[in-house]
Design goal:
Helices cover 46% and strands 12% of the residues. With 382 residues, it is an alpha+beta fold. The strands form three sheets. It has a five-stranded mixed β-sheet, sandwiched between helices. A three-stranded antiparallel β-sheet has the order 8-7-9. Strands 4-5 form a two-stranded antiparallel sheet. Strand 4 and strand 5 form a beta hairpin. It comes from Mycoplana azooxidifex. This is Multiple sugar transport system substrate-binding protein.
């Protein structure tokens, strides 16, 4: 019996489907046993990937860690495990940039288990108007109600900044990997965020996305969060009020819904012996049966496009998937060079302080660019 140690994140969306899949009789019959450990969300976002790969055979990670993983030589490429033909099929089946976000230095480093991006969360029972489509509508709702919350804790201030810049027509560091964002776009994004942040309800200012969504489900002081990582579990909760999820705001009608890709993938550490049984299990997790039925049925959030448009899946989960699929298809992919994770955390702290101080936009943008440059590896890929 091959016994593997695996690590995921401590939330029903991150754990339940993987644990249930590992308990399937077919796995034991194939001579494979996988024990899934859990770490808190904050550890998932910041813990050094090389350390985790030293201790685990399979590691659930998010795509901005791949540059760090490549630098640490701690993962096996998917090409070396599955071959090009399998990856081409997965690319065709995966929604948005779910698979290609794990491509770095010419190869892929994780299987796209779970797809997510920032979307709009709304307490539809409290919203006395149509769901906002544009950022100007969001700002007006903030001014008129004081019940619009920005997700700013942890890395999320920086992630929201990146998303709004993408909606405003300039995906950060995309046309020029050395420039985070131009002054013109940066000022518009900063001024908008500063304005909405000033009225963001104090009750959720220090909460991560799970905390904000949990608060929204059980309290009435937050009507809308315009950019927050979608968690399908809150669309049809066992307790509390249901939260409706919609596409992220756009700058103009018909424009791009600015959003920064999230989601998770399964990386295979170099310590792992890849057997035929393990390959079959991992590809089963990516396949139609698991992605359309098994994973949504165990609190997971699939990465297969077909699942996001499946009528049964949407009926069970309050149309979460079909209402946000457009945002995911167009989601912005962050830089992934070694050093990006550290930048993301420091940039968020810088922005939170700037919002509190109502600091001048140009100074904040200069500081952000300097911080970005200091954490960008020489010659590193996005």
């Amino acid at each position: 019996m091959q016994r593997l140690k695996a690590l995921t994140w401590d939330h029903p969306r991150g754990y339940n489907a993987l644990a249930a899949a590992a308990a399937r009789p077919e796995l034991t019959e194939s001579g494979l046993a996988i024990a899934w450990d859990r770490q808190p969300l904050e550890g998932f976002e910041s813990h050094p990937i090389a350390d985790l790969c030293d201790r685990y055979d399979l590691v659930v990670l998010d795509h901005p860690h791949v540059g760090e993983a490549v630098a640490g030589h701690c993962l096996q490429s998917l090409e070396s495990v599955f071959g090009e033909e399998v990856l081409q099929a997965l690319e065709a089946e995966s929604i948005g940039p779910s698979l290609r976000s794990y491509r770095f230095a010419g190869v892929h480093w994780a299987l796209p288990l779970d797809a997510a991006t920032q979307v709009m969360a709304v307490r539809a029972d409290l919203l006395e108007r149509q769901v906002p489509l544009l950022w100007e509508d969001v700002a007006e709702l903030s001014r008129s109600t004081g019940k619009v919350a920005l997700s700013l804790a942890g890395p999320h201030a920086a992630l929201s900044f990146l998303s709004i810049a993408a909606a405003f027509g300039e995906p950060p560091a995309e046309s020029d990997p050395d420039l985070l964002v131009s002054k013109d776009t940066g000022r518009q994004v900063y001024d908008l965020m500063c304005d909405v942040a000033a009225r963001s309800p104090p009750s959720v200012r220090e909460k991560n996305p799970i905390g904000i969504l949990g608060h929204m489900a059980n309290h009435d002081d937050v009507v809308l969060c315009p950019l927050i990582y979608g968690y399908v579990n809150y669309a049809a909760p066992l307790e509390g009020n249901a939260i409706a999820f919609h596409n992220a705001p756009r700058r103009i009608a018909g424009g791009r819904p600015g959003s920064t890709l999230g989601g998770t993938g399964i990386g295979i550490s170099r310590r792992c012996e890849v057997t035929p049984a393990l390959k079959r299990h991992l590809l089963w997790l990516m396949g139609r049966e698991a992605q359309v039925s098994f994973i949504p049925g165990h609190d997971g959030q699939p990465s297969r496009r077909e699942a996001w448009h499946n009528a049964g899946v949407n009926a069970r989960w309050g149309s979460f998937y079909e209402n946000t699929a457009d945002t995911l298809e167009q989601a912005y992919v962050r830089p992934r060079h070694d050093g990006y994770i550290a930048f993301q955390g420091k940039a968020s702290a810088l922005l939170r302080h700037a919002f509190e101080e109502r600091a001048a936009a140009d100074r904040v943008l200069d500081d952000l660019q300097a911080l970005y440059a200091s954490h960008r590896s020489a010659g590193g890929e996005r």
